[in-house]
Hints:
Blueprint: E1 3-6, E2 11-14, E3 25-29, E4 35-44, E5 47-54, E6 60-63, E7 67-68, E8 76-79, H1 89-131, E9 138-147, E10 158-169, H2 176-183, E11 200-203, E12 210-214, E13 220-227, H3 231-237, H4 239-242, E14 259-264, E15 267-275, E16 278-283, H5 289-294, E17 298-305, E18 308-316, H6 320-326
Parallel strand pairs: 7-8
Antiparallel strand pairs: 1-2, 3-4, 3-8, 4-5, 5-6, 9-10, 9-13, 11-12, 12-13, 14-15, 15-16, 16-18, 17-18
Amino acid sequence: MTKLFLLGAQREIDTQKQVVEIGQIIHMEGYSYHRYVVCDIVRNEYGIHYKLIDLSDYLFYRTEIIRPLSQKYGIGYYYDETNPTFKNEEELKAIVRKAQEKKAEDERKAEQERIRTEGIRAIGRKRLAEILPNDAMAMIVGRLKQNDSDSMTDYYASSVQRTVILGFSKHTRDLFSEMRKYAGNFEGTAYLSENNEDYEHREKYSMGDGYYLGESKYSGWIIEKVRLYNRERFIEDYAYTAGQEENICIKTQQTMSPVVVHQAENLQFEIIGYSEKAIALFGDTKEIKDTLKDLGGRFNPRLSYNGGKRAGWIFATTKRAELNSVLNLK
């Protein structure tokens, strides 16, 4: 006899004892509240295993524990021992057929994605091997973070939506000045090139996130340094990133000559090339701040300006024509 003990429910489960039948409807309680149908029952030396189909998305699942609703405790699969419901043979066949078709289609798409991903990785391996300096000891990267936290359950986490390569370093010291140096290579991180202590995060402690430059570790762009311990392993780890050309942002920064615009509907503006991929707008922008924000601009109270600091807006250089149109400029 094979038994499992559910600590929270304080119950012992005999996994050799069959509790439901093929075609019977069961429920997931405490989490998704989905309905499932038992499509197969397999018995081996370890006990009985129930094969299920989710009636909401027709995905296959497998479990060895299904408990009666009268013993409901926590998240799990449950059956109604008082009023059990079933799918008839024809209904079950149709459900199984639909689930098998979905599984085959999902596997086909997964294989297509695997082939696509491997193609990108192959390009990335070659590209990164060519641009990675022999004396490089680390790489400066930008990461776009998405906040996946749930304050209702005190769950705090984030996921990386995109990674860009900003430059390489010949040392492993974590220097914010070095991170700021490369920030201007990419429009999304250009605003982090400013010497703003609020962007500097030092979390080199247990469970910390190390040194990174950014407004928040949960959302928006951050810049950090990645050490290179093994060249081959490093290239493999970043092959997919490097395989997408738009993620390579390691060109030398260039400073463009400022362009001064005197008047636009009684408002004065000045647009300058801030970096290779970013432009900055200065001037009387208070009345049009919402429009500028909708255009993709990012306000920064401490942009570099003629050797000092001045409030202004950062835009991608690709927004120049739209910006001229919005400001009624020629």
